[in-house]
Design brief:
The complex is a heterodimer of chains A (190) and B (364). Chain A is of the alpha+beta class and 190 residues long. Chain A is built from seven helices and five strands, in the order ααβαββαββααα. Chain A has a three-stranded antiparallel beta sheet. Chain B has 364 residues and is of the alpha+beta class. Among the domains of chain B are: 7-107, Ubiquitin-like (UB roll); 126-137 and 147-221, Alpha-Beta Plaits. Chain B has helices at 25-32, 95-108, 126-134, 169-178, 209-213, 277-282, 318-321, 333-336, 355-363, and strands at residues 7-12, 15-20, 58-63, 76-77, 87-90, 157-159, 183-186, 193-196, 219-221, 234-239, 248-254, 257-263, 290-294. The radius of gyration of chain B is 24 Å and the shape is globular. The chains are: A alpha+beta (190), B alpha+beta (364). The A-B interface holds A 75-79, 81-82, 90-97, 100, 106-108, 111-114, 116, 131-132, 148-149, 152, 154 and B 115-118, 122, 225-229, 231-232, 302, 305, 330-331, 333, 335-340, 346, 351-358.
Chain lengths: 190, 364
């Protein structure tokens, strides 16, 4: 067959010399490398006892935010749902009644808010679209499960703990979100 | 014989058009169409006397007429200025106009609460469009925005006075369409507000049209309040045999549910026919209407994100291909999801849904 280029090099396999035919020195050489790695720093960690820090731009499970008084920030404006490329977000709005001012920030709120985690691609466009700082992607993984049903996340699953009742949980759920927002802002202005 | 209408030549943004005498610059520009037509917040073709208040339609007249070619000293409101023969008008080609319009938008937004996420008008709001095309990102206003005591205008119409830009369109509608006006602009200056004198409800049979003419979200449909966002509803043209009005409307549907009924609007956002309250507020069932087809929506509008082009529902093809065997459902979304549950018809609730609506449903 005619070679396509003239760069082809024909190699003649050289016969093995005595050292090579013994095999043992090379096997020992390989064993030495393996043995050396026992004392080196490990690349893996013991999950779930140990956890790696998240990247500052990590996009995990959604959280519905509350304001500092514990009122839900979401007003069901639908911008997250229209921004969602996977059409994972649905909601139903309701009007705030008298006496519910401590629960909802604005006169309209999301009575139902659902994210279909089977559809969600964690792109973070909902967070970007939200004018009320109400939804953001946290530093948690979506847990694995056996049933499809458990992946339809409603408001009870998504809402952040009340900062007045459980400030520690609130802070944990919020994570480094403020820091991240600050970084984004800096990057945008820079 | 003597009443022959004189045709005048007018050049707007270097496009020349002949219009009959008595035409305003705005009308002439709309005949050309497209970008050349100045935006209008208060002017409404079908309302006599409207216009001249919002100043968004300002244009520069660089040549007064053939007889008197001097330019007009100031920018003029195109909706109220008549065309002269040989007039030369600059709209988007004039830097002065864009500048002035930016200023006008800033003024209009001074007291505007910018509660678009809550407002039902968002997505079809003229002020929103205008501020996106001309507005600045920030505000320079440092004072408290004006607020008002809430006025109840009856079971059909919701008034949000803080959003109002005082265009007077609704006042003209009440005067010219209903014939008997019970609301108007009370007080002056910063305190000026749309209200009825001593709490009255607006209940004339054609008063619902004030919702359609309102360029902002100051007057909205209470029966549609918070039911859905405009861009998630499907606009279809429909008509019915109505004894009071022409019955030609646009239905805003969600599935088969009719969430809202409005008049049909043309490309300038003006209704084609006034519709009566019965059509607008009472007929919220598909069977009340003869559906003609999807409404044409400008592709730049957020409402067009639904891409409704036909009325045919998508068919299940699986069983046809698989010899009648139905597809195996791994999960019925309604068995888990609380949203859009088949049993609840939002269109049947008179006002906005509240926590009661949803709690009652939970017990059932």
């Amino acid at each position: 067959m005619q070679p396509l280029t003239n760069r082809v090099k024909v190699l003649e396999p050289k016969p093995l010399n005595l050292m090579e035919r013994l095999y043992l020195p090379n096997i020992l050489k390989g064993m030495m490398i393996t043995f050396r790695h026992i004392f080196q720093k490990k690349a893996t960690i013991q999950y779930p006892e140990q956890k790696r820090p998240f990247s500052s731009v990590f996009r995990g499970l959604h959280v519905l935010n509350r304001d500092e008084e514990g009122r839900e920030r979401c007003t069901a404006c639908g911008l997250c749902a229209v921004a969602c490329p996977a059409e994972a977000i649905t909601m139903e709005a309701a009007e705030r009644k008298k006496g519910e001012e401590h629960l909802y920030r604005e006169e309209k709120y999301a009575a139902r808010y659902e994210i279909n985690m089977l559809r969600c691609i964690f792109c973070g466009l909902c967070e970007e679209a939200c004018p009320k700082d109400a939804i953001y992607l946290s530093e948690t993984f979506a847990p694995a499960n056996f049933t499809r049903k458990s992946f339809i996340y409603g408001k009870p699953d998504l809402l952040i703990p009340d900062p007045k009742e459980a400030p520690d949980d609130f802070a944990r759920a919020k994570g480094q979100i403020e820091e991240r927002k600050e970084n984004t802002r800096k990057n945008l202005t820079a | 014989m003597a009443d022959e209408i004189k045709m005048l030549k007018v050049t707007i943004d270097n496009i020349t058009i002949e219009v009959p005498q008595g035409t305003t610059i705005l009308q002439a520009a709309r005949q050309i169409g497209g970008e050349v037509a100045p935006p209008a917040m208060c002017y409404y073709t079908k309302l006599k006397g409207s216009g001249g208040k919002c100043r968004t339609c300002l244009v520069e007249v660089s040549k007064g007429s053939e007889a008197d070619p001097r330019p007009m000293p100031k920018l003029v409101a195109s909706c109220r200025t008549g065309v002269m023969d040989g007039m030369e008008v600059k709209n988007i080609t004039s830097g002065k106009v864009t500048d002035a319009r930016n200023g006008v938008v800033e003024f209009l937004l001074l007291n505007h609460p910018l509660d678009c996420p809550v407002c039902d008008q968002a997505g079809e709001c003229h002020l929103q469009d205008l501020s996106y095309s001309h507005g600045k990102e920030g505000t320079r206003y440092e004072f408290k925005r004006r607020t008002f005591e809430k006025h109840d205008l009856g079971p059909y119409i919701q008034l949000h006075m803080t959003r109002c830009i005082l265009c007077y369109r609704c006042v003209f509608v009440a005067d010219q369409v209903t014939g008997k006006r019970v609301h108007g602009v009370l007080s002056r200056g910063d305190h000026a507000e749309i209200a009825t004198h001593i709490e009255k409800s607006l209940d004339n049979d054609f008063i619902g049209n004030v919702i359609d003419v309102c360029p902002v979200g100051a007057l909205t449909d209470k029966t549609f309040r918070f039911k859905n966002r405009v861009w998630f509803t499907k606009p279809v043209d429909a008509h019915r045999d109505c004894p009071n009005c022409k019955g030609k409307v646009t239905l805003w549907q969600r599935g088969d549910e009719v969430l809202r009924v409005t008049g049909r609007k043309d490309q300038w956002g003006e209704v084609e026919d006034w519709i009566c309250n019965t059509c607008r507020f009472e007929k919220k069932h598909v069977n009340d209407w003869v559906i003609e087809g999807p409404t044409k929506i400008d592709r730049h509008s957020v409402i067009s994100q639904g891409h409704y082009t036909g009325l045919d529902k998508p068919k299940e093809t699986f069983s046809a291909v698989h010899g009648g065997r139905a597809p195996k459902l791994l999960m019925d979304i309604h068995s888990v999801s609380e949203v859009n549950r088949p049993g609840i018809a939002l269109s049947e609730i008179q006002g906005p849904a509240t926590s009661d609506t949803f709690n009652i449903d939970k017990q059932a």
